[in-house]
Amino acid sequence: MDPSEVEFLAEKELVKIIPNFSLDKIFLIGGDLGPFNPGLSVDVPLWLALNLKQRQKCRILPPDWMDVEKLEEMRALERKEDAFTPVPSLYYMEITKLLLNHASDNIPKADEIRTLVKDIWDTRIAKLRLSADSFINQQEAHAQLDNLTLMEINTTREFLLDSLNFMFKLRSNLQPGSSKGQLTDY
Amino acid sequence: ISDSQDVMTPAELIAKLEEAWLNEKFSPELLENKSEVVECVMEQLTHMESNLQRVKKGDAKASFHRMEIDRIRFVLSSYLRSRLQKIEKFFPHVLEREKSRVEGQPSLLSPEEFAFAKEYYTNTETYLKAVALKRMPLNLQTVDLLKAVPEPCLDSFVFLRVKEKQENILVEPETDDQREYIVDLEEGSQHLMRYRTVAPLVSNGAVQLI
Question: A140 contacts in B (CB within 8 Å)?
């Protein structure tokens, strides 16, 4: 999956905006939004929030978890634990990147937030690399990865799955008469 | 259109499309076609587009609707493209599965996809014949495409998220010195395992490939 497709999914997450315009309720296929009144917060999907922000029609409010103290705690916990700790949002990385790129003026302490989220991401990716490595070494057949986000899974997806599948085929070829070892286009 | 479609809200329909999109993207084999979902989504899109034609230019709401339509179109196109890629890749096997389908079983291909697959098969045969086979010795002039074209590898690993709790799923060992064991799949949990074991669960919606 392309990272932009993961971002596409992340853009469905709801965020609070403060519009500077008026509009009565709109009935999208995916659900109802609004009504929009200047100065009153309203929940909209991120894709719409970003578009409105770019057209200077709103201010975006950072989600509750996008706060320096809370993120510092999360970072500390993530560094301490061997396992993956629960994330503030399934799409924490994408939301952070999109908001900081397009609405950093609405995010207090944007630079610190950026660093903290990156640190959390780096720690988790390092853990993921270790897990993937041990999964392959131990030739495990199953793993549970509850707190991993889609973007994190996606960084390792192609390489990990291709490697596992290829190893399976090589192993199957060791068994005489097996038809499972067909090597398809690589 | 089955009864269950009548009570589905448009939002649920779009969610179903996205689920189908992800499942098809990550599954090693072609999945059952979801033509009812595709048709209903097309209906929603056409309906919304015709509404937008009647609205005057510069209408604020129109841009919101347009953006949403574009997003849904993207998912729909990507979903259909995924399926076409697999149809092309596994065409003799896909046709074989469809041929050996029993009455009452849901079909693998939509009517359009079936026509496409058959055409692709004929074109490939004609091409191979014209380019190489007709120059072969008489006893080597046929190719069994079912044997020549590799089957999808159902033992590929996939990532999945559990939607409905499943108990006692058998995990087969990778090596000879390992033993098989069972796992329970808790609702909301995420796993990495072989597709073959969970294929029926993808089919019935108990797990979602991610």
Answer: 174
